[in-house]
Amino acid sequence: MVEEELKIRKKAGSYKGTFAPVTHFFGYQGRSGHPSHFDCSLGSTMGFTAGLLVEHGLTGVAASVSNVTRSPNQWRVGGVPIMGLLSTHQKAGFSKSDLVVASESVNLNG
């Protein structure tokens, strides 16, 4: 609908920009249940850790939490250099490789 409206506005001369929407598929997230106590504790710990990393000038790192199978008072927090998480990935149709963080595909039909 937005695309159609912008076409009309371009013809009328009232819009001169470009339109390039970025969409996201919420299939996996949409099937999720409410967060558990563990999810909330982990999310809070990750956020707090990220804040501490920034406060101490440690940019370019991703917050990490280990020992999460133990009680929260035994969790260990830290930062992992983002460069250590990257690998090269050949992009179809391009001569150069892109740096990406490896991910796993979600079966949308499962």
Provide structural commentary.
The chain is of the alpha+beta class and 110 residues long. It has a domain at 35-84. Helices cover 31% and strands 20% of the residues. The protein has helices at 2-12, 27-30, 37-55, and strands at residues 61-66, 76-81, 86-90, 97-101. The model has no long low-confidence stretch (mean pLDDT 87).
Q: Based on helices, strands and strand pairing, what is the structural class?
A: alpha+beta
The global form is extended
Q: Count the strands?
A: 4
* Overall pLDDT metric: 87
Distinctive features:
4 strands, two-stranded antiparallel sheet, 110 residues, alpha+beta, two-stranded antiparallel ribbon, extended, 20% strand, 3 helices
Question: What's this entry about, in short?
Answer:
It contains three helices and four strands.
Topology:
Blueprint: H1 2-12, H2 27-30, H3 37-55, E1 61-66, E2 76-81, E3 86-90, E4 97-101
Antiparallel strand pairs: 1-2, 3-4
